[in-house]
Write a structure and sequence with these properties.
By secondary structure, the protein is an alpha+beta fold. It is about 40% helix and about 15% strand. Strand 3 and strand 4 form a beta hairpin. Helix 2 packs antiparallel against helix 6.
C-alpha cells in the first residue's frame, strides 16, 4: 500500500505503509516514541494528521514532510503533472497565456499552523479566464492538485530547486 506523504496524511496510515518511518518521527521529536504504544497506534494515530503531529511535536511541518518523504524514498523530486493533456498538451503551454492573479506561500502558512487549501480555494473561486493562482511550497501538494482538477481547474506543479515547488491553478483561455 502506498500512501501520499502530505499534511493531511494520517499518522497511522503512514506507519502502516512505511513502518520504518516511526524511527524518523522519533528522531524529529522524542514525543513520537509514544507511537510504539499499540493502543495509541490504534486510536490517536488513526485520526491524527501529520500537520497535527508536527504541531504536537513542535516540529516544522515542511521539514517533517521533507524528511519523511526522503526516508520513504518518495521525496517528490520529479515534476508532478497529472493533468494529462492540459489546454495545449502540457502545463507549461497553457501557463504561458495566463497571468498570475494571486501568489500564496504555503511554507509561511504551514509554519503559522494554517493549511493553504482554504486560501487556494478562496482565490481560485475569484479567477477569471486566463488567470492563475501560484502556490510555492516545500513539497508537491499532490492532494491539492487533484482536488483543484476535480473542481474543473487546470493544475500544474514543478520543482524549482531542492524543497521548492511551484504549483499553478487556473482557468486557461
Amino acid at each position: 500500500m502506498q500512501v501520499t506523504i502530505d499534511p493531511e496524511t494520517k499518522v497511522g496510515a503512514l506507519l502502516d505503509a512505511y513502518p520504518a518511518l516511526k524511527d524518523t518521527l522519533v528522531e524529529m521529536a522524542p514525543a513520537f516514541q509514544k507511537l510504539s504504544n499499540p493502543v495509541l497506534r490504534r486510536t490517536v494515530a488513526k485520526v491524527a494528521t501529520l500537520e497535527q503531529a508536527a504541531r504536537m511535536g513542535g516540529v516544522s511541518l515542511p521539514e517533517m514532510i521533507r524528511r519523511l518523504r526522503a526516508a520513504a524514498g518518495v521525496d517528490g523530486r520529479a515534476v508532478v503533472d497529472r493533468s494529462g493533456a492540459g489546454a495545449c498538451g502540457n502545463g507549461s503551454s497553457w501557463l504561458a497565456a495566463c497571468a498570475v492573479a494571486e501568489d500564496i506561500d504555503a511554507a509561511a502558512m504551514l509554519e503559522r499552523g494554517v493549511h493553504p487549501i482554504g486560501k487556494v480555494r478562496e482565490c481560485t473561486a475569484l479567477l477569471k479566464e486566463g488567470e492563475v493562482v501560484r502556490l510555492t511550497s516545500p513539497f508537491p501538494p499532490e492532494p491539492l492538485l487533484d482536488t483543484m482538477r476535480r473542481a474543473g481547474l487546470e493544475a500544474y506543479c514543478e520543482e524549482r530547486g531542492p524543497g521548492r515547488f511551484v504549483s499553478y491553478f487556473g482557468k486557461p483561455r
